[in-house]
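Q: Here's a chain of 267 amino acids. Please give me its 3D structure as tokens.
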Amino acid sequence: MSTTVGEVVSWLEAAYPPRLAEEWDRVGLSVGDPDAAVDHVLLTVDVTDAVVDEAVALGAQLIVAHHPLLLRGVHAVRVDQPKGRVVTRLIRAGIAVFSAHTNADAAADGVADALANVLALTDRRPLDDHGQGRVGTLPAPLPARAVAQALAEGVPTTVAGVKLGGDPDRVVATVGVVGGAGDSMLDAARAAGVDCYVTGDLRHHPAQDFLAHADAPVLIDVPHWAAEWLWLPAAERTLQMAAQTAGRAVTSTISRINTDPWVLRLG
């Protein structure tokens, strides 16, 4: 008996409930037929042209992505525009797309926990009331520069790399983490009283103003794609455990394509 797209979606939504997603988010199945058969799943952070090429080459019928392909409004599906080109290629190739975004950020063993695992944080709790992010304690206090180094060694390599703001010699015991873009949660990190806040896409002025507070934690900026890629092995384990429980055989592949937009750094 063939496994269907809808069945795989049900397994993943059990692990990453859509109710955990932020109101503005667009999670779930965005492209494809729920009744279509699946024997190969490709996991990725982003659905790009290169990732579609990989899915076609593998013979995958389903892409499981972190970022929604159609997060922002699309009013035309044209092959001469990026989103329309990707959607058209997917439909022609018979490849479905499922996304778990902020629901995977908040869920247990999701994106936030994957980032927290790099630092082996203990005594974890959510950073905010919606379940986003994690706050935890390091196994032993470390200078901030050592925390940044551990993150640099623990995430995939990118051009931008890991950056630290604040005192590199500050002793860090408690850490808050948010995968992806987390400058909207700077106030929550400060309110949590952590010694260090780890997230991505930190902008100049919000970071500068934040660090000017006497009680501000140090900031560590981890590239957006690199932090969220850490979740893919956990998502694959979840998929395979559900398939085994259901008595199904589904092949899965984690994409190694770096979809970070930056390819060169000078100076």
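Q: Can you summarize the key feature?
A: The radius of gyration is 19 Å.
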